[in-house]
UniProtKB/TrEMBL annotation:
It comes from the Bacteria. Residues 1-27 form the signal peptide. Residues 25-253 form the PBP domain. InterPro entries: PBP_domain, Phosphate_ABC_transporter. It comes from Methylobacterium nonmethylotrophicum. This is Phosphate ABC transporter substrate-binding protein.
Length: 269
């Protein structure tokens, strides 16, 4: 009688465990919040990570900017962030740590109606300053140039100012649309004839737009003048096993191959 009871109890426990795993044992979600730069790359890493068995599922939500990542992780509302600019000394003093992942070229892209495939750096500066207003001035059709810019705190704009010839003190034309995220900039240029914008390079950009060569160099050429570094950030006080596991994966050789396939140059941690 006792043995039969033990067998029945084992069966019930096993059944309960099966139901728990099937319904209530869902993986915990760990969001990596922040910049829109390189978002497709990080989504690819998340997909690969989530395909393996584990207790944590990685999510890469829409952009809230590098500053949003610093505020969320620094304020201990999130455990992992993504940034496209270096942390300041003040941010590091708050306990924030950055882990550089990949170098991403800063692409200049145009609507296909612009009719050009390359510009000189002087022509690019002329367009974004408003000095050049029609595509026919640079070899394109008689079509008004529509500039799509980013806010001054944008990481790609900061990189362009630091590295692209003629951009350090460039005053961007007031006759322009300000995009609030990378995705907004891409979609605006994609949908607007005559439009030009900038953002982190991704091979996917070439699908429906033209990514310009600058001074004869394509974005992935060694001589291309401008790139941004995408990094993950965490706060030492809130780093846990789940965030440490994803950080280890994101800096692995496998992750490096995924990043390279999507147009980036992986960096060793």
């Amino acid at each position: 009688m006792a043995q039969a009871f033990i067998r029945i109890r084992k069966v019930c426990v096993a059944a309960l465990l099966t139901v728990t795993l099937a319904t209530g044992g869902q993986a915990e979600e760990l969001a990596v919040v922040g910049t829109g730069d390189g978002i497709e790359m990080l989504q690819a890493l998340a997909t690969a990570y989530n395909a393996e068995p584990g207790e944590t599922r990685i999510a890469v939500p829409p952009s809230i900017g590098s500053g949003g990542a610093v505020a969320a992780v620094g304020g201990e509302r999130q455990k992992l962030g993504r940034v496209a600019r270096p942390l300041t000394e003040a941010e590091k003093a708050q306990g924030l740590v950055e882990v550089p992942l990949v170098r991403i070229p800063s692409a200049i892209f145009v609507h296909r109606d612009a009719g050009v495939t390359g510009l000189t750096s002087d022509q690019v500066a002329g367009i974004f300053s408003g000095r050049i207003e029609n595509w026919n001035a640079v070899g394109g059709p008689d079509l008004r140039i529509r500039v799509v810019r980013r806010e001054e705190t944008d990481s790609t704009l900061a990189v362009l100012r630091a590295s692209m010839p003629g951009w350090r003190d460039l005053v961007l034309t007031t006759r322009s649309k300000t995009a609030t995220t990378t995705q907004d900039a891409v979609e605006t240029v994609r949908q607007t004839p005559g439009a030009i914008g900038f953002g982190p390079f991704s091979p996917a950009l070439a699908g429906t737009m033209t990514v310009l060569a600058i001074d004869g160099h394509a974005p992935r050429d060694p001589g291309y003048p401008s790139a941004v570094t995408l990094a993950l950030i965490y706060k030492a006080a809130t780093r846990d096993a789940a965030s440490a596991a994803f950080l280890a994966f994101a800096t692995s050789e496998r992750a490096g191959r995924l990043l390279a396939e999507r147009g980036g140059a992986p960096l060793k941690p």
